[in-house]
Amino acid sequence: xxxxxxxxxxxxxxxxxxxxxxxxxxxxxxxxxxxxxxxxxxxxxxxxxxxxxxxxxxxxxxxxxxxxxxxxxxxxxxxxxxxxxxxxxxxxxxxxxxxxxxxxxxxxxxxxxxxxxxxxxxxxxx
Length: 126
Fold this sequence. Notes:
Blueprint: E1 19-23, E2 26-35, H1 37-51, E3 57-68, H2 70-85, E4 89-93, H3 97-105, H4 109-112, H5 118-125
């Protein structure tokens, strides 16, 4: 197979990069587009230092995602584990019905307590 023939399999990651900002003492990581294996590999090096850092509250905002698979579950579980291991709190903002269903099937709604808004996530974090 020639390299030119592989061009049909090439793609560009068109999802915007995560947006990270502070809000009322919390660090918010706003994710966009697809949360799949490629996104996991791209986003994890950004999220790991945030969830291991000094912020008491970390919020992962999923309102702008368009696809969420088991890689997204892994990303959230890893972020939760890192944040809670140092005594912090992780909150998730999510309004997408299918993503909420995936979190429910995975048994993570009680652990992650997805909130519909940033304000609700901040209030839940205390």
